[in-house]
Amino acid sequence: MNLLATILEDLRAPIGRDPAARNLLDVLLSYPGFHAVAAHRMIHALHGTGLPLVPRFLSNVMRFATGIEIHPGARLGRRFFIDHGSGVVIGETVEAGDDVTLYQGVTLGGTSLSGGKRHPTLGNNVSVGVGSTVLGAITIGDSAKVGAGSVVVRDVPANSTVVGIPGRVVLQDGKPLRSTPSATRVDMPDPQALQIRQLSERIAALERRLALIAGSGYDDVAI
């Protein structure tokens, strides 16, 4: 598929995924997510030619224009849709499948300073919610959903929903999963309970001695 046809698909993508998208002209004129993705398609093509500096400069211009930062090296699938988009960051080695949707504040980031693959791979039909962070060379499976505000640092299976910090799978193939503790529980000593137990033992000892006094008839038994 040629570049123009891919951009036209991106233009149509919001119509089916955002109720606020009235028509194609509305998307063309007022959707910074579309502007950022369309520009990235062309910048990525320049980047692929090995042209130095210019792709990075152009991507920086688009960051100021749209509030969305996409590294020229990122590989985005067809019908890629960024809804609202402000604050979205997409790293250099990100790979995304078709029909991916990102919302505002999403970061697809790296966890390594070394070269090579260090950013996430997203399958087809993946949705990443508002303010979520997906870090490292991990894989988000097809049709997976990342809940708003989640931090995902491990692979996510296909057809699942992951939420929380750190992200954990709560739905798999539409069925809820039983919650399991993410870490071993550590029982710390309770100083108040220790003091109460010591006082109880002392009182029991005093009561035994008082019983001895009462039984012996002596008043001078040491307590």
Key traits:
alpha/beta; UDP N-Acetylglucosamine Acyltransferase, domain 1; seven-stranded mixed sheet; 5 helices; 35% helix; 17% strand
Distance between the termini: 97 Å
CATH topology term of the largest domain: UDP N-Acetylglucosamine Acyltransferase, domain 1
- Please give the domain count: 2
Overall form: elongated
What helical percentage do the residues reach? 25-40%
Biggest sheet strand line-up: 2-5-8-11-13-14-15
Low-confidence stretches: none
The percent range for strand residues is: 15-25%
CATH homolog superfamily of the largest domain: Hexapeptide repeat proteins
The overall strand count is 15
Instruction: Report the total helices.
Output: 5
State mean pLDDT (0 to 100 scale). Answer: 88
Q: Using only CA atoms, what is the Rg?
A: 30 Å
Q: Class by helix and strand content?
A: alpha/beta
Order of helices and strands: HHHHEEEEEEEEEEEEEEEH
CATH architecture of the largest domain: 3 Solenoid
CATH class of the largest domain, named: Mainly Beta
Architecture overview:
The chain has a seven-stranded mixed beta sheet. The termini are far apart. The chain folds into two domains: 3-176, UDP N-Acetylglucosamine Acyltransferase, domain 1 (3 Solenoid), CATH 2.160.10.10; 187-223, no CATH class. The radius of gyration is 30 Å and the shape is elongated. It has helices at residues 3-17, 24-30, 32-48, 54-66, 191-216; strands at 69-70, 81-82, 89-90, 95-96, 101-102, 107-109, 121-122, 127-128, 133-135, 139-140, 145-146, 151-152, 160-163, 168-172, 175-176. The mean pLDDT is 88. A hairpin with a 4-residue loop joins strand 13 (160-163) and strand 14 (168-172). Helix 1 (3-17) runs antiparallel to helix 3 and helix 3 (32-48) packs antiparallel against helix 4 (54-66). By secondary structure, it is α/β, with parallel strands linked by helices. The chain contains five helices and 15 strands. 35% of the residues lie in helices and 17% in strands.
